[in-house]
């Protein structure tokens, strides 16, 4: 039965099952599948694509660092979309959980045609300690449904690091903490044939998510000189943040 929690602050001290790296069985693979289905059903990819597009220039290649990629569904959709737009986009999908990273590689092998598969590289590493290979330079960072996993202090440190690694901009696509969003995902998770892990984590993700002021406060405290936020269905905040200017040189 649906309990009715408080929404006045983020539930950052309650843990999602997916954050437990000891969960390596079929529960993880099924939950990753459920996330992909929900993102597709609720239009979660398009807002990220459109926000990233504002930073891009057609005449040059773009290298994007995707944070906490999970099964790399955002990078897969991004390179397909970019190819259709005539844009040269390559993505490094950063994922700390080695088992999830293996699922991501398998998913990309199935989801992308052979000519696009090399455009996404899955890297198993922690976002707080990741050091790019010598010669690797990123233009932009993207965080899709990732930031709500961290308390504010860790978020600020993370975004400051992105400020250094991806100097031209950052796009955040994350959840809006709202009672309607919570009730809707609770119901959807039970109407669809989703896993118990997803049924636990999806509503909790909403409770761990952000109000507009909370998310913008974190972005500004991380040192981004300019940022704008827009609301998208279904209950998503999309932030476009840049240290100095909105476009690549």
What does this entry look like structurally?
This protein is α/β, with parallel strands linked by helices and 249 residues long. It has a domain at 43-176 and 211-242: Vaccinia Virus protein VP39 (Rossmann fold). It contains eight helices and seven strands, in the order H-H-E-H-E-H-E-E-H-E-H-H-H-E-E. It has a seven-stranded mixed beta sheet, sandwiched between helices. Helix 6 (179-191) packs antiparallel against helix 7 (196-207). The radius of gyration is 17 Å and the shape is globular. The N and C termini lie far apart (53 Å). The mean pLDDT is 94.
Task: Write a concise synopsis of the structure shown.
Helix content is 40%, strand content 18%. With 249 residues, the protein is α/β, with parallel strands linked by helices. It has a domain at 43-176 and 211-242: Vaccinia Virus protein VP39 (Rossmann fold, 3-Layer(aba) Sandwich), CATH 3.40.50.150.
Main features:
Rossmann fold; 249 residues; globular; 8 helices; alpha/beta; seven-stranded mixed β-sheet
Radius of gyration: 17 Å
Q: CATH superfamily of the domain at 43-176 and 211-242, please?
A: Vaccinia Virus protein VP39
Assign a percent range to the helix content. Answer: 25-40%
Can you count the beta strands?
Answer: 7
The main β sheet shows up as: 7 strands, mixed
């Amino acid at each position: 039965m649906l309990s009715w929690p408080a929404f006045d602050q983020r539930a950052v001290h309650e843990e999602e099952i997916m954050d437990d790296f000891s969960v390596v069985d079929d529960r993880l693979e099924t939950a990753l599948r459920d996330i992909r289905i929900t993102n597709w059903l609720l239009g979660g990819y398009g807002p990220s694509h459109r926000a990233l597009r504002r930073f891009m220039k057609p005449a040059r290649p773009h290298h994007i660092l995707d944070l906490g990629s999970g099964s790399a569904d955002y990078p897969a959709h991004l390179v397909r979309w970019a190819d259709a737009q005539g844009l040269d986009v390559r993505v490094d999908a950063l994922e700390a959980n080695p088992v999830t990273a293996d699922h991501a590689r398998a998913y990309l092998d199935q989801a992308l045609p052979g000519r696009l598969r090399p455009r996404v590289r899955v890297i198993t590493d922690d976002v707080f300690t990741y050091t790019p290979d010598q010669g690797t330079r990123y233009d932009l960072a993207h965080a899709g449904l990732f930031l709500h996993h961290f308390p504010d202090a860790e978020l600020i440190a993370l975004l400051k690091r992105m400020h250094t690694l991806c100097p031209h901009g950052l796009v955040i696509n994350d959840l809006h903490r709202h009672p309607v969003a919570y009730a809707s995902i609770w119901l959807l998770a039970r109407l669809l044939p989703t896993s118990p892990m997803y049924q636990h984590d999806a509503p909790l993700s909403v409770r761990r998510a952000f109000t507009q002021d909370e998310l913008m406060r974190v972005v500004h405290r991380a040192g981004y000189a300019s940022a704008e936020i827009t609301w998208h269905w279904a209950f998503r905040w999309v932030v476009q943040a840049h240290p100095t200017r909105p476009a690549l040189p």
